[in-house]
Amino acid sequence: MSTSEVIVIGGGITGCATAYELSKRGVKVTLFERESIHAMASGWTLAGVRQSGRDATELPIAREAIKRWAHLGEELEAELDYVQNGNLRLALVPDHEAMIRQVVADGNAAGIPMEYLDTADAVRQIAPEVNETVVGASFCPTDGHADNHKVVRAYDDAARRLGAAIISGEEVLGLTTHGDRVTGVTTAKGSYTADVVVVAAGIYTPRLLESLGLYLPLNIVHCPVAQTVPTDDFTLSPVLGVATGSFAARQTVGGGVRFIGASVPWNEGQHTPANVGMTVRQKENMTRNAIAVLPRLADLRIERVWGGLIDDTLDLIPVFDAVPSHPGLVVGAGFSGHGFGIGPMSGEILANLTTEGGDPRFDLSPFRLHRFAEGVTEVEAELFG
Ligand SMILES: Cc1cc2nc3c(=O)[nH]c(=O)nc-3n(C[C@H](O)[C@H](O)[C@H](O)COP(=O)(O)OP(=O)(O)OC[C@H]3O[C@@H](n4cnc5c(N)ncnc54)[C@H](O)[C@@H]3O)c2cc1C
To answer: Is the pLDDT of residue 11 over 80?
Structure first.
């Protein structure tokens, strides 16, 4: 049996950033990842770093994250391809205009500098490749994007340099307890004890919590993604999104255009982390929608397609919690399709919950795990305690 002060479950951006933040404080950390780092959402993501369009409860965290991104590469001693060229959320038809104007109003009310661009010309001055039929767009100049693989690897490397043990290919099978206190984890190779276990296991978080009688309902959706070959003949400097959420795109620093299509409910039997493909129909729909927004995409060769699974909570905001009913348990999950941009803050918040029991900078009450248990039916309560 091996002992750590903290065990982190999950090697995505959330777990790796948490391992780094804890190691920086001199905490002895072991992270278990069942596949390899960035094997799931943090590897599949579009990797936009945005404040605009977020739930108001998340905005203070997103705002702090933007400050952190500015110096993150320097701090982690790695190139992260972080680019801060803004985010345009497009109104493609007049019916979308009111929705997009509301995004601007909400952002401005929360102190985020954003404007509504009310002509196609104004939008195309920022993104000339956007179809001239566009009606308008919100623009948030402080949003951006980064290279997701480089970011997670940089956190992994930095945590290791500070002494963290990052173990890939070892799945946590269960949490161990003494009474209600969480005391460690078991894997196929043995048992490991810790003062605190941080669960940052993405879509598999509910499975781990269920064994403790804890309830985290997630709707898992599958989102198709494509990336073109790198090109000098196409420039998209901001990240794009649309009012309906059925399309988003960015151009990587290497020149490839990455875009996503509409999500559909996940058929659990259909996909595994090793095989998250998409159907021919999903690919056709995704490509058709993308070309409607960026017509010249039709001239670019698609290099790679994949699908990504997204862990939507019922209120579409994550869980950040040192679970009061289970001392020694901290949860960071349910990022609902926008956990990459706030990843650096998630790491800080989870480290603070681990070492201090809270984070004085943010009101974390909306992010409690038990918010879901409060509305469960009697049958569910029997099942989940
Ligand atoms: C297509 C797509 C587009 C997206 N676009 C954006 C975007 O533009 N901007 C944005 O901010 N966010 C975006 N997101 C969301 C963002 O990528 C995720 O919220 C974020 O990556 C979640 O990171 P995570 O570390 O919490 O989870 P994950 O990256 O899923 O990591 C969890 C890890 O836990 C491991 N694990 C699970 N169970 C166990 C176990 N029992 N033992 C050990 N390890 C285990 C898994 O293998 C996995 O590696 C997008 C997501 C997708 C799929």
So the answer is: yes
Atom of ligand 1 nearest to the CA of 346: 26
Q: How far is the CA of 115 from the centre of ligand 1 (A)?
A: 30
| CATH 3.50.50.60 describes domain 2-46+149-216+315-384 | yes
Asked if 187 and 173 touch (Cβ cutoff 8 Å), the reply is yes
Which alpha helices (DSSP H) does the chain contain, by range? 13-24, 41-44, 59-76, 97-109, 120-126, 148-161, 205-210, 280-293, 343-356, 378-384
> 367 in ligand 1 pocket by Cβ < 6 Å?
no
Of ligand 1's listed atoms, the one at least distance from the Cα of 35 is 47
pLDDT tens profile 348-367: 999 999 999 999 999 999 99
Whether the CB of 32 sits within 6 Å of ligand 1: yes
Q: What is the pLDDT of residues 149-190, one digit of tens each?
A: 999 999 999 999 999 999 999 999 999 999 999 999 999 999
Report the percentage of the chain scoring pLDDT > 70: 94
User: CATH top-level class for 219-312?
Assistant: alpha beta
Nearest C-alpha to atom 12 of ligand 1 is from which residue? 338
Ligand 1 atom with least separation from CA of 172: 42
Please give the Cα distance from 171 to 103 (Å, whole number).
40
- Residue 326 CA: distances (Å) to CA of 13, 101, 155, 197: 24, 43, 28, 11
pLDDT in tens, 225-284: 999 999 999 999 999 999 888 999 999 999 999 999 999 888 766 666 666 778 888 889
CA of 95 to the centre of ligand 1 (A): 33
CA distance 191 to 4: 11
> Do 2-46+149-216+315-384 and 219-312 show the same overall fold?
no
Tell me: pLDDT of 58 over 90. yes
> Is 9 close to ligand 1, i.e. is its CB under 6 Å away?
yes
Domain ranges of the chain: 2-46+149-216+315-384, 87-140, 219-312
pTM above 0.90, yes or no: yes
Q: Check if 222 has its Cβ closer than 6 Å to any atom of ligand 1.
A: no
pLDDT at 272: 62
